[in-house]
Amino acid sequence: MKSFLLYLWRIVLFLVAFILLYVAFSFLLSWIPVNTDQPEEDQNNRLYAFSNGVHLDFVIPVNLLPTQLSAQLRTGPDTKFVGIGWGDKGFYLDTPTWADLSAKVAIRAMFLPSPTAMHVTEHRVVNRTWSQLNLNDAQLEELFVYIMASFHTDASGKITELVGEGYTPLDRFYEANGNYSCFKTCNTWVNIGLRRIGVKTAIWTPMDKGVLRYLPTLGTTAPSPTS
Q1: What is the pLDDT of residue 208?
Q2: How far apart are CA 60 and CA 63, in angstroms?
């Protein structure tokens, strides 16, 4: 019995130490930027980043979407922007807000590599709480390569919808590639995409603020003509 309690105590200490280190590194690394030297080419493509407090999305004008993707998303005639995010499938489907988060979902998502899904949301107008992201043509093309590689597709390149799993009539879920963990969260996915295309962002962050702190909000800038 004593050896069991000692073993249990060590597990508890390990978990506490892990959580403390995780929080410390999450905070520290989110304040260390990469890509501080920005490209000189015209950054004439205005995209956005949006967080609902849980999940961070890229928000893309529909006229900028590659045909391969836009043809499969079934957006409505009034849709002007499409939000695209990646994350834990269970977390996405069962946790639309923090109030819906359960211990089971949180533990599985954080400590076990788990299957993922893509979340696509239709937007009709610009929201002033969004952050802006200005890209040149090369960056935009590279970002779409990154996003498309995150969708799970069949041999013909068709994405797979999780039918009936959206929160509202204006959003849908699709099968995704990759596994979710505490080291690669939905917000880390956005952060990795920005790092790859040369946008100033955190060196690593599991939280939305680690990305958003490097992007100006629309509340302080005028919308682009595409808005």
Answers
A1: 94
A2: 8
Confidence at residue 14, expressed as pLDDT on a 0 to 100 scale: 78
Instruction: State which residues of the chain have pLDDT below 70.
Output: 2, 4-5, 7, 40-41, 95-111, 219-227
Kindly tell me the sign of the dihedral angle through the C-alpha atoms of 208, 211, 216, 218. Answer: negative
**Separation of alpha carbons 160 and 152, rounded Å:** 7
E-strand ranges in 52-170 read 56-61, 81-88, 116-123, 131-135
Q: Write down the residue that tokens 């499938």 correspond to.
A: 89
What's the burial of 52, exposed, middle or buried (CB within 10 Å: 0-12/13-18/19+)? middle
Strands of the sheet containing 131-135, edge to edge, are 131-135, 45-51, 56-61, 81-88, 116-123, 171-175
Q: How far apart, in Å, do the first and last CA atoms of the chain sit? A: 66
Q: Contact at 8 Å (CB) between 175 and 159?
A: yes
Q: Which amino acid is at 21?
A: L
The predicted structure's pLDDT at residue 94: 75
> Would you say 135 and 197 are in contact if contact means Cβ atoms under 8 Å apart?
yes
Q: What are phi and psi for residue 192, nearest 5 degrees?
A: -60, -45
Q: Which of 95, 93, 116, 99 is nearest to 188 (CA)?
A: 116
Entry pTM: 0.88
Tokens encoding 3: 């050896």
